[in-house]
Amino acid sequence: MKTSFKTLLAAAAFATFATTACSEKTQENAEATAESAASDVSNATEKAADATSNAADNVESDMAPEAGDTAVVQNKETEGLVEETPAKQ
């Protein structure tokens, strides 16, 4: 489970604020709310990470060569500008 530093900082700040409540019952409710919020953020972060991973997998599978592909890509350094080949008429 991945949680960002900002998420932990926000949860800690909220918990600190919540613990200064007037009554014990209010304090317990605030702590439960802080824990719930941290859990919700953690779950959302995990779902976002999964979605990003799935999107990357989809792009990779979309880029796989298929039968009939004829393009050849060469990764070479150029010495200057790359000129377009004039279209044949």
From TrEMBL:
Residues 30-39 have a biased composition (Low complexity). Residues 24-89 are annotated as: Disordered. Residues 1-21 form the signal peptide. Residues 40-56 have a biased composition (Polar residues). Keywords: Signal. This is Entericidin. PROSITE patterns: PROKAR_LIPOPROTEIN. It comes from the Bacteria. The lineage of its organism: Bacteria, Pseudomonadati, Bacteroidota, Cytophagia, Cytophagales.
